[in-house]
Amino acid sequence: MDKVKKWQKEIEVITGDVEDLLYSKYQAEELEKIIRANPFVQQNISSFWEHYKLNYTYFIVSKIWHQIDEDTRSLSLINLLKDLLTNHRVITKSWWVSQGSNALSSSTFEEEFGKGDNLDLNLVCEDIQSLKDSTKEIKEFRHKQVGHKDNSGKFTSNISYTKIKEAIGQIEKLVIKYQLLLTQSGYESLTPVPDDWQVAFTKGWINNEK
Q1: Mind giving me the DSSP string for 168-181?
Q2: Rounded Cα gap, residues 171 and 19, in angstroms
Q3: CB of 4 within 8 A of CB of 95?
Q4: I want to staple 176 with a disulfide (CB 3.0 to 4.6 A). Which of 30, 34, 79, 187 is the partner?
């Protein structure tokens, strides 16, 4: 089962990368809440916030691209799914239920991955297509200039945050699904437990004295 071991290693690397993506999304959302809750900050943070949003967009688009890059040299979610599709018969129900004393049942395999004796290739095809559909605009955006200054001198971009959230959500959903398939790990979310990074915003640390 060398193929399965390869997939297991790949899904762990992919999971770590997506956890980083989701934590960055969480931090950006929490920072925006801090800004919206403080009128003084809103009045004095405009240039910083514009640059932060631009850099965040660059980063997030890059991280999403890591998972949809179909270059055969890339370790990406889509390449893992394509490999599973080509070799779907390697994943069998009998292998699934033989994963030790705590292995999940055959009924769980049938509910999640197909009624037959092997991983249902149609399900994998659907997942590949859903990944492509949800990230189509991200892919197009990545291949163009991701930000430029408009006539007012502000940085702009032509990708909506809704599309970014949709792409991230679909990637998270699929990573959780294929973690279950390959390692029987029952993730509910891939967002890491938050730390106390907000504490930096509770104390004034810039000395304005000349």
Answers
A1: HHHHHHHHHHHHHH
A2: 11
A3: yes
A4: 187
Determine the Cα–Cα distance for residues 21 and 11; give it in Å rounded to an integer: 15
pLDDT of residue 145: 55
Whether 57 contacts 146, CB under 8 Å = yes
Structure tokens at 154: 């502000």
Q: Which two tokens stand for residue 197?
A: 């990074």
112 pLDDT above the threshold of 60? yes
Residue 55 — pLDDT band, cuts 50, 70, 90? confident
∠142-65-179 over CA atoms, to 5°?
Answer: 160
Phi, psi for residue 156 in degrees, rounded to 5: -130, 165
Please give the span between the terminal C-alpha atoms of the chain, in angstroms, as a whole number: 68
Q: How many residues does the chain have?
A: 210
Torsions phi, psi of 92, nearest 5?
A: -115, 160
| 158 Cβ contact partners less than 8 Å away, ≥ 6 residues apart | 141
65 pLDDT band, cuts 50/70/90, is very high
pLDDT number for residue 209: 63
Closest by Cα among 175, 172, 170 to 130: 170
